[in-house]
Amino acid sequence: QSVLTQPPSVSAAPGQKVTISCSGSSSNIGNNYVSWYQQLPGTAPKLLIYDNNKRPSGIPDRFSGSKSGTSATLGITGLQTGDEADYYCGTWDSSLSVMVFGGGTKLTVL
Amino acid sequence: EVQLVESGGGLVQPGGSLRLSCAASGFTVSSIYMSWVRQAPGKGLEWVSFIYSGGSTYYADSVKGRFTISRDNSKNTLYLQMNSLRAEDTAVYYCARVLYGYSMDYWGQGTLVTVSS
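The joint structure predicted for all components is written out below.
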């Protein structure tokens, strides 16, 4: 059971928009930055969003992040088949003094 | 160019030990936070350990007392010493560079550790 809760799967058609939620508590999301990672099959995770809503260089603006209270959301617009991957949220938990990840969400582009 | 290359994985018997290495280039490991993250087969990401630039270390409860993170500044390399290994430690182990805010911006390719008799 992960400290951060994500839906196991989401799906949408090419060109559409999808959102992935990440729910936590005041000790983690509520008081720390959230990051999001994309993991394509058989590869290492890749940073998509850091500090709640910032994109590293090279990440297209189709990817966005937001945070409100103890929840965070990853948005992906203009879906492409190449976006099919597992997506993870992560943050620091100040009470436990550990890094925590969500259980991951598998995105299927129908 | 920032690059992280892990090595040292392999097959080990339960109760055995293994040391993973993560050779860094393009930056200095001693000047930034570094982390180990693992992923069991078919499972999600699990954080294992941090080492801060000042040398402080943090561990997941699942590995505390058995794993030790360290670095060799002269070799610009991060290590994970793993003792008393268990079957549930079987995973791909990634090293990652950690930014302020605890996001991990560069990851290695991973090294597979299999604990089995």
